[in-house]
Structures are given as structure tokens and as C-alpha cells.
């Protein structure tokens, strides 16, 4: 058995920019423990969070930072107590890599809501160390087996990568907040990386799915993805015919600019749920109890999803042969700058996956 | 059988004021139909809505207006098709007196969320007429039998009146949003007219109940009402020990002045529900998806409760011998000015009921 590595090589951002510089260098991995898995990375999807982080939109982060949290690769080493992953297995890592495992939330499969020790895939200090977690624009990643997900054979690497964050982010609120109800009418607001998974998964779960977008530009795409209906919010009177009819709307929009929240809320059936998964950079929206009382709508947000939901989602994707729309980009400084620049202006249909890791880091 | 009356006598407000003038005069009743019940009023609780309305806090209303929507009296006439109420029966009327009865919401016992034809007890034009609905500071009220609720024998008239709006307003979100869960931890924010019912009913439903108030002034009252615990939000660090532990908090506060919403939301367990039933006059609060994501809390509001919930609540109150804290005031211009003035400054523990109707209107 080879000695356990202490570092890996990857692309770090030192200072936010649009796009920032990506600096190839070595950085420390967390110390390996008995439950850790080392993964040689083969692909990484590009998430809106990466853009918010490296362009400075979410403010101060733990720079220098290697971002990327939609990771697919091979397990190349497992700790002596690992039982969930085998060496050689193709696996994924999403946007979180650790939680305490002991609190009420963790024990109830709400580990992505752990209040005790929640470690993000990048940017979180590993407790008791000076090491900040680093993401998937790198040769290797190491983390606890619980946060490493075996990937069904039939799902192609570049296509499955974005499911690890974008997919799960919308899958979890769909199954938790109403899409499984018989005859559920589900809306997906914001047809981007997350939203396109919203249409795919809501349809696969059996719901009646409506895509909701500012204009009809993406209508053909939405219908090709499986939407049963389409609403364009720049059209006069778009909301009235659907008043009080939706069981669930997952709001995947990444901005609240010109966002008529009251019109959206009017769409909800009694106690229907308006769940946001985008985290806009803007200051927020004003809500009055009066605006929520006429249909008793519930407003919420959702954070990733549990391990069980991840495994269920991957199985659903395999069983239903779900095909995300993914554009592959060669990893490297050029590719990273391109994806950040294009994502910042929404120029992708509907997700980038960085591939060609062997070209950069060798076999 | 006497001829069917077309008018009744009561106290109307013409212009908002603090307090306004209450003018005794006759006004029209809706035309009687086959399903209507005429009630000779004996008592009427005084709701925060009455104060918001007659002092102008909620803006333009349909003045002149006779307010009051926690009405108890005797059925003195029933239409030929009425089956739910008998002449001579003691009955109540709450804050709503009609809905379409035909829409999805009405058919699913969400009639207080009817989007088609929701008639409030006072201030709503009866469709197809020039008659605006008038409330309980009057000798008689007439409405559809569905909105007339037989009252269990054991509940005293003055004590039960405030249940018709305040009681139901907090009972419905308790049973809909989590108080029935085994071991539920429920918070009641704002220990006023509605909040005191919140403590009484949450306890009667079996929950662990925490009263949450600005200071400890009302702690003894809250514990006497049945609260298991008490949190004072003016104390440093009040929220931290309860982080992520509440299943449901019903926010009964009537103002958002100095209201630290983020601290309240931090109390909620994963997908716990923060349900507002107060309708403050202020402009609202800013909410960001980020504030809701760490525990997936759901924010909502609630509007009254269904007929079934009303009957269940009255039965629970009778079965558990629930005793609201009510101060009786003689109906009349003096009494009305007094209750509005005292309610405006929160000087009541915890609800007024106007009584002595016979003194004013005769037997």
C-alpha cells in the first residue's frame, strides 16, 4: 500500500474577479482518518455557488480557495473502517463533506441541516486544524465515506456530475414538500442549471410540471425536458388562470431583480409551498403576514439533501434514464475562466462539467 | 310566524378615530334566504381586527361600519331549508359569514381560504346588493347556517365569545401545522388575546408549550394559563439554548416593532413552521432565502379556521373545561370607546367581551 498523500494539486482563486485568476498549485488535504475515502477526480460540474464565491458576490470567503462541488471520480484509497465504498468504485461528492453525525438533525436524516459541525466541500475549516476544505478543481479529494456516493453504472460521468449538487438541491425539496402527492401540480421558477433538473426530476416523480420563466425564450427547451406547461411572467395576466392551484413551486432563480413575489404566491393552493433553492446576492424581499394569509402559503428554503435522497435520486436517474443537458469543458485556467464568464451571464444550457482531468494531472 | 325583519339596530363607526365615535342607528340586514339564520345577539368579544379597523390602521374600509365578530346569541328564526341550527339554540358567529361553497378550497374544508366569494362578518358587500355586512355590536345578525356554530352547554357565553375568532385563529394553525405531533414543542409569541388562547389550546392538545414575550411581565400569567416554559426576548442569549428545537411557533404579535425575526427563526427545528396570525400594520419584514436555509424553516400565515375546526375547538374547550380570561364590558358607546382605547394600549388580560345587550336593545 502506498504511503498516504498529504497534499494534492489543483486550481485556487486568491482574489475574487470576473473572472478571477485560477492558480495551479499544491495544497494540503485533511489528515486521513479511518473512515476517509481518497478520490481521484475525473469530472466536476460548475455550480452557481462557485460563481458567487469566486466573483465575490457572497462576500468574504476563505481564500485562497479551490472551488467545485459536483465531483465524480474513482475511489483510490479507503480507510480501514470504511464499509460504504470500495477501492476502484466510481463515486460522487456533493457540496457538503461532513456533519457531526450525533445531533437530532443528523440522526433524523437532516444532516445537511446539522447545526453542530457542518463542513462544506470547499471553504470550511476542518475543526482543530488550519486546513480549509478544498473542492473539485483538483486531482484528489478526501472525505468521510458517508459523504461519498456510489454512482450507478449507466449514468455517464459528465452527465451525473451536476446531479451531485444542482440535482440534489432540487430533488430534495421536490420529495419533501409535495411533488410525491398524487396529482401534484409543481412549478419550477428559473430554468437554469438547477431548474432544468427540477423539470427532469419533478416529471420523473410523476408530477404535473410547469416551467415558469421571464419570457418564452426557453419554452421549447422546457417542453423538451418534460414540462407539461409553461408560464412567461412578462405576459399580462399570466398568473390569474393558475391562482391557488399549485401544490409546490421550487424557486431556482438566482436573482430577485424585478421579482413579483406576490404574483408567484398567488399561484399556491392552500398551504402550498414556495421553496427557494437559489441564494440571490440581493438584500431580500419584504414579506407581510397579510400576503401569506389569503391562501396560507408556506415560504421556505432548502439546503442540499440527505445521503438517502442522494442515493434515491441517482437510482431514479438511472431507472428513468434521465438525461441532463451538459456541456463539457476541458479543465484548466482557460476553461475555468470561460465557465465563470459564461455562467455569470447565463450563457449555458444548462450545466457545465469540467472534464479531461487526466490531461492536466496525468493518469 | 312574524314577518322577516329587514333592518336591525346597532353601533356604527363613520370615521376612524382613537377611539372613534360609535353611532347608534338602524341599518339593513341582508335579504333572508332559505339557508339563513337570524340570531339575537347576547355578547360579542372584541378583536384586534376591530381596533385596526375603527382606528384606521388597516386603511380604507367600508364605513359606516358596525364591527365585532366574536358573536354569541340565540337563533330566533331559521330559513325553511336550514338543518344545522334550531330556533332557540345558543350559537356563535365568527369573523367570516360566507364562502362560495363550490370551489376546490371550500370542498376541501378550506372555506376560509375561498378565492371566489369570501364574505367577512363586517365590511364585505353582499354580492349583487348594496348591503355591506355588519358585525356584532348590534341587536341581530343574519347569515347562512354553515357559518353559525352551536355552542356546547357548559361554556359560558362571555367566555366562549372570544373563541369564535381569537380562539379559532390560533387553534387552526396549531392543529394544521404541528401541535398534534407526538412530543411537539410549540411556541406562542405575543401573549395577548390570541396568544393566551394559544397557550390554553396548545396545552389542551398535548404539546410542550413555551410562551415567548418581550419581558417577564406576563410570565406568571403564562404559567397560570398552562405554559411549560417562558422565554423573554429582552434577555441576552435567550434564543441560543433553544436553537433548532421548536416544531411550531404561532406568532400572535400584533406589531413587528423591534422584532428580531432571525432570532425567532433560529429556534425552529428542520422544516419547523413559523406561522403568523397577527396582521401588523407595519410594512413587513425582509426575508432572504439564506435566512431560511440553515434549518429549512417554513414561514406562513393562517386565516381563521374551518367549520369543522370551530366545532372541534368548542368541543375541546368543553371537554377540557378551558377557561379563557375575559373581562366583561357593558355594550354601549361608553363601553365601546373604553375597549378600543384600552386595547390600543394593550390594557387587557386578555380579552374583552361586550355583554348586557338586553339593557341596550331590550329582551
What's the CATH superfamily of the largest domain in chain A, by name? Medium-chain alcohol dehydrogenases, catalytic domain
- Model regions low in confidence, pLDDT < 50 over at least 5 residues of chain A: none
CATH architecture of the largest domain in chain A: Alpha-Beta Complex
Oligomer: homodimer
Q: Tally the helices of chain A.
A: 11
Span from first to last CA of chain A?
18 Å
Q: β content of chain A, as a range? A: 25-35%
The CATH class of the largest domain in chain A is identified as Alpha Beta
Structural class label of chain A = alpha/beta
Measured on Cα atoms, how large is the radius of gyration of chain A?
Answer: 20 Å
- Percentage of residues in helical conformation of chain A: 10-25%
Pair of chains with the largest interface and how many residues each contributes: A-B, 40 and 40 residues
Which whole number gives the mean pLDDT of chain A?
Answer: 95
Largest sheet of chain A: 7 strands, mixed
**Any idea how many domains of chain A?**
2
Provide the succession of SSEs of chain A.
Answer: EEEHEEEHEEEHHEHEHEEHEEHEHEHEH
Q: Could you tell me the number of beta strands of chain A?
A: 18
Q: Tell me, briefly, the overall form of chain A.
A: globular
What is the CATH fold-level name of the largest domain in chain A? Quinone Oxidoreductase, Chain A, domain 1
Organism (chains A, B): Sporothrix eucalyptigena
Protein name (chains A, B): Enoyl reductase (ER) domain-containing protein
InterPro entries (chains A, B): ADH-like_C, ADH-like_N, ADH_Zn_CS, CAD-like, ER, GroES-like_sf, NAD(P)-bd_dom_sf
Family (chains A, B): Belongs to the zinc-containing alcohol dehydrogenase family.
